[in-house]
Amino acid sequence: MHPAPRPAPARTAASHPGPEAPEADLRRAIRTDAVAGLVSAPLLLAAAVPLGGPLGLPVPLLVGAGVVLVVLATFLWFTAHAVPLHRGAARAVVVANCAWMAASVAVLLVWSPTLWGVLFVAAQAVAVLWITITEAVALRRLGGPR
Hints:
By secondary structure, the protein is mostly helical. The protein contains four helices and no strands.
């Protein structure tokens, strides 16, 4: 005699992500990006003068980066919370992050930062690269032109 067959395990959102999983991942990535910017911007603006010398970067450049971060992070926050999620805005987030990374390389080539300045710029560029890859992968998984 054979044992009774076991019922199939119930499908859950965790075991079988549905179509909402890529959108949730994209929202989470953009929200993380926004929070990083909203935390970094005021710190950069408040510390631009004391950081300029040790980093070997001009204070107006640091202040300008802080202002851009405020604007970008605000856009990111509203994009992450828009209903429905606007994929064009999400693509703009990826493009803006790519522009930020390109600007980081330009800063290293145009100015002569100290070793601390190089590490500072490189660290934030690597962080932006990581979140941009996360956003781009989630956006690609989401698919479609919506």
